[in-house]
Amino acid sequence: MRASLNTQQQEALRYIDGPLLILAGAGSGKTSVITRKIAYLIEHCELPARHIAAVTFTNKAAKEMQSRVTQLLSAQQTRGIMVSTFHNLGLHIIRSEIATLGFKVGFSILDQEDSRNILRELMHRRTELDDKLIDVIQSTISNWKSSLLSPEAAAKAASSTSEHSIAALYQQYQQAMRAYNAVDFDDLLMLPVQLFQNHSEILSRWQNHIRYLLVDEYQDTNKAQYELVRLLVKQRRAVTVVGDDDQSIYAWRGAKPENLLQLKEDFKDLKVVKLEQNYRSTGRILRAANALIAHNPHVFTKSLWSELGPGDPLRLICTENENEECERISCEIIDMRLKRRCQHSDFAVLYRSNYQARALEMKLQAHAIPYEITGGQSFYAKTEIKDVMAYLRIIVNPDDDNAFLRIINTPRRQIGPTTLEKLGSYANQRNVPLFHCIKEFGLAERLEPKSLEKLHRFKEWIDRINQRLYNDNPIDVIREMLDDMNYYGWLQQNASSDHVATKRWQNIEFLLEQLSQMLSPTDKKYTTATETVEGAIAKLALRDLLDRNEDATTQDKVQLMT
Predict the structure, then answer these.
(1) CA 302/CA 6 separation, integer angstroms
(2) Quick check: is 77 in a domain?
(3) Backbone angles phi, psi at 121, to 5 degrees
(4) End position of a domain, from candidates 275, 305, 335
(5) Tens digit of pLDDT for each residue in 77-132?
(6) Are 558 and 348 in contact (CB under 8 A)?
């Protein structure tokens, strides 16, 4: 971190008299400005940290921001500050206002796979919708939520028979989510906005709580995120947003770079400060970038410059085919390592689509060049982690049918598909979650005594764990649960070797360590509320959705990425 800020950075840091847009090009030191502005608000403006919130888009960015703030201020000074992603902020609001929203404590956060399973089940009851279109339908509903369209509004806006059918499915999907006491990723933004729009007293309370808001990567906000920010800062207008329309790459998932322009409409006194000095790249790179960016439509104009000198000349290399291209890349890496003593980790290869990595991988392997594909399987997407998370979800939220169906035979309990089909049919008729149906007399009339006994044993076991989870040490209870069902033995049965099973068990140990840290009294630096078991599990579920291999590798490997 540089010791001093340049003139424009100083101006952005000190301006607190109204809404501020920091137009920050790549490598212009925006994170330093945000973190130092937080310190400025606390130290010079004497604003308590508990009234400051800073939001960004990824866990990695939030952790980086949080880390830098701790380097500038003491633990006492930062107590209560909220540095998080948009979705974590939304989760915090939902948990705080759970009674008004009509959810029960321990609600589940469903990932994309769980959401798709619910939609698929609902689609089976609607013959006019083709199962093959489930990805399109899921994306359509997601976009509607990002645009703050309720099922009723989506139905009114529908312009075709298929859109009317999807809107009707959207209505059923939301009803199912309520029945499961669950929310999906998009609900974490839509629900807080709807809450604030419909309950002025709650909005007023949150406006008083968050007295200064800082937002990073503003060009990537969708309508729901923009409206959430607008509502929170509407009263005090104490907001700093950092953005660059030239860096907007998420329009495909609802991001609206024109939100930067909308700021000028909603905040007539908006001040704009441009950060144009680049601390990352050399002159030749910036001149080439400026020339290319000049062709883009702009909300605001800027021109990046650097004091790092001209740098090496840029090279454009043309090859005959894909094989020659990959060979040339490999040879360039070898040559640079020999001549400049570079590490493998000094190199990155960018490509447009994942399929292009295949030929490159083969060529790198042929030359014994170690590499890593960034964006591989997330830790929270691993089978063993999803299994344990499903157990935790059903324990704190018995209404979660997706979690129930994942774990009922993991490990195997000899509860067959016929039993589950009858249970599902009965639950649908009663419109009651699967777990709650198990002890009902009506189900006993449909199942064989042995099958019913297995379900009863499972429910009683889960109920006992639930009771102990709140009375004993939660981590000890979870470990005993895993021992009771011999989950390690299950891993050994389904792994290709004992080594693989051990690695998977180590992943579970890491998950429990994360949960333990979240429940620990020492993990209160950035929150004023005592973390509950339900809250910790909800946050872990959200990490499942947000963490996609964000942490940079420390190994000496060439990085391959889109």
Answers:
(1) 17
(2) yes
(3) -65, -40
(4) 305
(5) 999 999 999 999 999 999 999 999 999 888 999 988 889 888 988 888 776 677 77
(6) yes
